[in-house]
Amino acid sequence: MGAEHYPPPWFSVAPMMEWTDNHYRTLARLISKKAWLYSEMLAAETIVYQTGNLDRFLAYGPEQHPIVLQIGGNNLENLAKATQLATPYGYDEINFNCGCPSPRVAGHGCFGVRLMLDPKFVAEAMCVIAANTNVPVSVKCRIGLDDHDSYNELCDFIYKVSSQSPTRHFIIHSRKALLNGISPADNRRIPPLKYEYYYALLRDFPDLQFTINGGINSIDEVNAARLEGAHGVMLGRAAYSNPWQILGLVDSAVYGAPLRSITRRQVLEQYQVYGDSVVRMYGLKPHIRDVMKPLLGLFHAEPRNVVWKRKVDAALLRCTTIKSILEETLGEIPDRVLDAPLTEVPSGSTDTFIKAKSLLPPPYTVSEEELL
Ligand SMILES: Cc1cc2nc3c(=O)[nH]c(=O)nc-3n(C[C@H](O)[C@H](O)[C@H](O)COP(=O)(O)O)c2cc1C
Question: Which of 24, 46, 255, 256 has the smallest count of CB within 10 Å of its CB?
Answer without folding.
Answer: 256
